[in-house]
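User: I'm new to structure prediction. If I give you an amino acid sequence, what do you actually give back? Let's try with this one:
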Amino acid sequence: MTKFKIRSIVGNVFVTYVLFPAFYIKDYWSNLVSQDYQGKYFRSDSLWHYLDRIFNGFFLFSTVLLIASLLPYHLIKYYKLYKIQDKYYLKSLIVYITINVLLVCITGYGGLFLTSIGGGDNDVPFIVTLVVFSTITHGFLYLVIDRYRFEKTE
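Assistant: Good question. You get back a string of structure tokens that encode the predicted 3D arrangement of the chain. For your 154 residues, that looks like this:
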């Protein structure tokens, strides 16, 4: 059980502070690779100053994600969903997406569901972006944490 708790903590911290920031700066990856440290409204001379600008305030946002999205999901998962053996992955995915949708609505950003993200020709509705990100995050958490728990119980 101790290995499971450590794996759960490490998995959640990795998702919050490594995986989520990688998706967050997706628009800046090409600039990082080409070493052209120019943002939409700024230009930087060094990599560290550039990363500081694009991650400005992100630590707080990641912590809110950890507390408001992942913590309720894991509490529900540990106390309710682990009792379900049939179609566990699908049911836990639906719970995680529902928590994220409720989080957006509760924080007052429900109007985002009517908007599109992206520019030019690739306008993607926000709900699609939320569902895709939730599915990727949930899949990673399942691979890191839950898969091993079910292998040992069966």
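You can read the tokens as a compact description of the fold. Here is one thing that stands out. The chain has a mean pLDDT of 81.
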